Amino acid sequence: MTRWLRALTLGGVLGWAGLAPAWAQAPMPANRVASATPATPATTANASRPREAVPLAEDPVLEARLIEIAQELRCMVCQNESLASSHAELAEDLRREVRELMKEGKTNDEVRDFLVERYGDFVLYRPGVKPLTWVLWFGPFLLLLLALTVLARLLRARRQASPPPALTEAQRERAQSLLKD
Amino acid sequence: MKKFLIPLALFLGLVVFLAIGLQRDPREIPSPLVGKPAPDFKLVQLDRDDPLSPKDLRGKVWLLNVWATWCVSCREEHPVLVAFAPRMQVPIVGLNYKEIQPQDEAAKLPPAVKLQVARERSQAWLKKHGNPYTTSVMDMDGRTGIAYGVYGVPETYVIDAEGIIRYKRVGVVTPQVMNETILPLIEKLRPKT
After folding, report:
1. What is the rounded distance in angstroms from the CA atom of residue B193 to the CA atom of residue B164?
2. Each residue of B77-110: pLDDT tens digit?
3. Can you tell me the distance from the alpha carbon of A37 to that of B71, in angstroms, rounded to the nearest whole number?
């Protein structure tokens, strides 16, 4: 029982360690949409057809930065989409705005602040750690701690519970005879 | 017996939280601009070429209402503004937000012609639905909208005599919002003479 549990845990940890880096490097959907170079070389038939969301790749470095920032920002119109992947008009306007801010030489933090000043912390998918967001950041760990405490208590209670009473001789004989059949 | 009550209590707690969550409007996000100076702009007006700026309204409490003829919810809100405008006795400035949408035929026209089309459309719309605005300014490229953190037209701002934003409403202003929030706030902010 404990052995396979341990094996399972170990397997999970190793699997996670193996997968996580690949995961982090895997392109996000938005990246694919807006990536300047298509993953597969475009055939002639493909080339004549307008590809979806052709990026304004005047400056690939700037576009890459734009996508990097925009993936962490929420589109206020379709709230579960990032600013990078949203097709909402406001998202397009904001990408234009961010592009211009970056051309002016603003740092990523300054760009983020520009949007937070207007739309609030809600635009950040990864809001800063401050008293207002403590519950958000530490709440899950608190719950986990609580769950673990409850689990530990339950297990201890079960272990301390008195073992089942031993069988009487008559019962044992009956069991034996039942098993023989 | 008591043991069975624990999951039930947890479940009921969850139900209460979910019920509260359902009652809330995810679009209503507290604006960080409340309590801050109204962002500056300098935009041509609907009926005149001379630009209007928030500075011109210093010393007055005023309303900024973001609208457009393509905005469906604005049609729901508009009669409320028309009805309450005389009673409020404050300037209501309309911010005509991106009247010509990118998918619009007119979007390809040169800027001057585009502005003309936008003006004609807006004027016709106001003639049809009534005009509660002291004046409207034309935010053709949506830049001023971004400065004010507009993300869902219609939006309404109450700005005080010092040019500080005191209130922001995203979405339709209902008679209830007018009576319970906006009118009392205007009375409170109105400079005492």
Report:
1. 20
2. 999 999 999 988 899 999 999 999 988 888 889 9
3. 37
Alpha-carbon span A151 to A92, nearest angstrom: 49
Residue A75: count of CB within 10 angstroms of its CB: 23
Judging by beta carbons within 10 Å of its beta carbon (0-12, 13-18, 19+), is residue A171 exposed, middle or buried? Answer: exposed
Q: DSSP assignment, residue B84?
A: H
Residue type for position A114: F
d(CA A77, CA A83): 10
- What is the identity of the amino acid at B60? K
| B99-156 residue pLDDT tens | 999 888 888 899 999 999 999 999 999 999 999 999 999 999 999 999 999 988 899 9
CA distance B95 to B41: 11
Report CB contact under 8 Å: B26, A79.
yes
The helix or strand, by DSSP H or E, that contains position B157, with its residue range, turns out to be strand B155-159
Task: Identify the DSSP state of B142.
Answer: S
The fold adopted by the segment(s) B32-189 is Glutaredoxin (3.40.30)
DSSP secondary structure string, B2-15? HHHHHHHHHHHHHH
- Residue-range domain boundaries for chain B: 32-189
Tell me which H or E stretch contains B167: strand B165-170
> What does the block give as tokens for A40?
């597969």
User: What DSSP designation does B58 have?
Assistant: T
- Name the token pair of A127: 């809001």
Q: Which two tokens stand for residue B107?
A: 């979007």
For residue B32, give the chain A residue with the closest CA: A120
- Could B29 and A89 be called an inter-chain contact, meaning their C-beta atoms sit closer than 8 Å? no
d(CA A34, nearest CA chain B) in Å? 20
Is B46 within 8 Å of B20 (Cβ atoms)? Answer: no
